[in-house]
Description:
There is one protein chain. The chain is an alpha/beta fold. The protein has helices spanning about 5-15, 20-25, 30-45, 60-85, 100-115, 130-135, 170-180, 195-200, 210-225, 235-245, 255-260, 265, 295-310; strands at about 50, 55, 90-95, 120-125, 140-145, 155-170, 205, 230-235, 250-255, 270-285. Helix 1 (about 5-15) packs across helix 2.
Amino acid sequence: MNFLTMDYFTALAEERNFTHAAMRLHITQQTLSAHIAALEKEVGAPLFVRHVPLELTYAGQVFYRYAADIQKDYRSLRQTLAGVTDQEIGEIRIGTAATRERIVLPELLAAFQKLYPRIRFLLTEGSNLNLRQRLLDGQIDLAIALFGKSVPGLELHPFYKEKIVLVCSAALWGKTAPEAGLEKDTEAVSDTPAWRAFLQQCPVLLNGDTNIAGQTARRLFSRYGVQPDIRIESNNLETLLSLCVLGTGAMFSPDNLVARLLQPDEAQRVRIFALPDASYTISFGCRRHRDRWIMLDRFMKFAREKMGTR
């Protein structure tokens, strides 16, 4: 039994499929099967029930818990030794929401790798709750997310401020706002009869309820007593923004997404309105560890400085 065998076992336990696990490990299915068979012979018990999908036996569940802990400790050991010996080499696993990954990470990663070309990044996507659990399970090194409050076992480091805004095409605004009694130079949403009428009458493009924009919109509708005319609901904010520009409906979105993705001509065709109590802090989250890899701290410091210059 060695660390490689544990890697193979863990991949199969998580994928529950020999073909998928072999692809993840970049090995043949035959090689993976041989390693698992040898491991089961060594421990003296079957670790998987061979049906589709694969299922861990009780022995497999016990082995997985220990293997996961050993892998986390081994990874921490390698990272700590790399820091002690000042080796600028290794892998940083970052998890964040798909949209945030799209608008925040490309420039950061490209610039950081110019300084540290031997650092490899592995990116994964997920909801805030999912990323929190992945951190605690040791599946990622850093999460960029809205954590809200302290989380036992995790350290939180503020990254940057974000806020949700209401976006509406100028054409749709010009049609709906006068009917609701809103002044054309209005800049912020407020709890007034005119704004309640607008939100009631205007078609809405709504983000999913697991996303910050969708949660903010639902809270606002509830607070104002509005039953929105939801035309399209999607977890993909980029799709909703494209539809918004076309005049299909108004949407709620992080301000940096709008600024980042709209072309200059598109930006001239929309109106953007501030929302009350819609600002929040996006933070880095990482597991508490007395010997945290120095490259994680370097990346967080680098990222905060870069965001401050945008």
